[in-house]
Write a structure and sequence with these properties.
- This protein is mostly helical.
- It folds into 2 domains: 82 residues, Irregular (Zf-an1 domain), CATH 4.10.1110; 182 residues, Rhomboid-like fold.
- 55% of the residues lie in helices and 4% in strands.
- The strands form 3 sheets. A two-stranded antiparallel ribbon has the order 1-2.
- The longest helix has 26 residues.
- About 2% of the residues have low confidence.
Amino acid sequence: MSKQCDLCGFTEPLPFTCKFCGNSFCYNHRLPESHNCPGLVLYKQKIQDTGKLYHYEPEMKVHMRKSSAFRQVNSFLSVLKGNASLAILAVAVISFLLQIIIPVYSFYFALYPVDIFSRPWTLVTHMFLHGGGTHLLFNMLFLYFIGTELERRIGSRQFLTVFMVSGIVAGIGYSLWSIFIMGNPFAAAVGASGALFGVFAALAIIAPHIRLYLFFIPVPVKITHALILFALFDLLFIGSGDPIARSAHLSGVVAGVFIGRHLKGKKQYMMY
């Protein structure tokens, strides 16, 4: 069952229970040293007083009973309520299923640059549409691993702001590029890539020490270097005519950098 971290408030789908204090914590705060565990302090004090180690046995009460369907649904909703990244993932999956079931769904909610003023809601809705199962899979994997890491550091509300603002800026950037540079205002855009690049950029600004493994590089690289590499790749192929909305990626990066710098300047994040 999901629980909120007693230190940072992040809703962890698989919480860790400290054996010294009995509280629940997220992955980043699971170690006693990470949450300044008072139980660990008492444990060390007892060792100092007695001069010997002792076996710690926390009191645990296990209740074996079958969970009702309502309890399972409530547990699932509690995860989404306190975890914006997983809530976005769930909405994207549901939206993809609706794309398959309802033929006109994609047309109504996709972003068409020519209709940016007559259908402004598509600046938001296009983020939750995808061009296929592979497109959805890679974006949601990116969201799960990168998005949750940023959310742990800045909180769910600020994470949602980063995602939405970056996605909207990405949609505007794509529309302007399509209309004034490419001369193709009827090319629809779908996907959360622009918003995710903003999330990636914000995380790189806030936590530049993070290292990532990229599938084409055998050694870990700093997240800032990875961001620069991806941005240069999009710049290089922005006029190639491929179906990837590279102008949306770059616009999302710009938004993420500015938001990340703002959060870092205001110190509105947690360091790990």
